[in-house]
Amino acid sequence: MCGGGPVAALLLFAEKAGRPKVEILARTDSSGFGGPVVGYLAAVVLSGTGTGAAAFTLAPDARSELLRLARSAVAEFVARRAVIEDRSGRAEFAEPRGAFVTLRKRGELRGCIGFIEPVAPLGRAVIQAAIFAATEDPRFPPVAASEIADLRIEISVLTPAREIDNAREVTVGTHGLIVERDGRKGVLLPQVPVENGWDRETFLEQASLKAGLPRDAWRRGAKLSVFEAIVFHE
Fold first, then answer.
1. Angle formed by the axes of helices 60-80 and 122-135, to 10°?
2. Can you list the domains of the chain with their CATH numbers?
3. Is the separation of the CB atoms in 229 and 56 below 8 Å?
4. Most confident residue range from 14-23, 49-58, 127-136
5. pLDDT recorded at residue 56
């Protein structure tokens, strides 16, 4: 193609800028004319604050503090039915964020509950999710005091979910997934397909099954949404 060098340079720049969302507009979008023409490329790369995980970061000490909060929340509630408070005074913990807490015991899942929507400040959301994961996950009995030392805690801090039009927009290893239909909702965190070695289609099928829907519901009228997450553990 004529002018291939500048196009290649633009693509390299866009990739280094963080794989931005691409929108392609053709001349037919404005003129409606689809006949043969001599075409010219016009392109622009925009940067901004974004809504992905890269737009919101947590320093290592903030992550450690959240993990301590989660462990203290589980220990205090299991021992005394007491709900601790976030007294860290950290500004980032006061921002409303979706968050999940995952508990594992000797490598096996022991509980996982959280909030997709930013219904509470991050510190409080982690405390509540930790308690719920330990005591309210219907797949498991409540965590006993004797188990706490064997638990490994993982926290996922979520970006806001966004609806997508095409399942091909789902990127395994980057996106968490929400499948909704008929009043049912299935949610899988971004790390789940990676841990299980799933491809995109399996990820979509498993999220559909998680919702209590047929395996192929993602193809048949289900609403699909994706989100990203900052994931860290003890």
1. 40
2. 4-47 (no CATH), 55-158 (3.30.700.20), 162-233 (3.30.1490.150)
3. no
4. 127-136
5. 77
Angle at 19 between CA 18 and CA 24, to 5 degrees: 140
Instruction: Render pLDDT for 62-90 as a digit per residue (tens, 0 to 9).
Output: 999 999 999 999 999 999 999 999 999 99
Q: How far apart are the first and last CA of the chain?
A: 52
Let me know how many helices (H) and strands (E) the chain has, helices first. 5, 8
Measured CA to CA, the distance from residue 170 to residue 35 in angstroms comes to: 34
User: Which two structure tokens, joined as six digits, stand for 191?
Assistant: 């790390």
How much is the average pLDDT of 174-180? Answer: 98
| Helix, strand, or coil (residue 213) | coil
- Give the E-state strand segments of 38-173 in sequence order: 98-105, 108-115, 151-158, 162-164
Q: What is the pTM for the complete model shown?
A: 0.74
Residue with tokens 């609403």: 223
Polymer length of the chain: 234
Q: Which amino acid makes up residue 36?
A: P
Residue with the two structure tokens 């979706």: 98
Q: pLDDT confidence of 165, banded at 50, 70, 90?
A: very high
Q: Is residue 185 a contact partner of residue 179, using CB atoms and an 8 Å limit?
A: yes
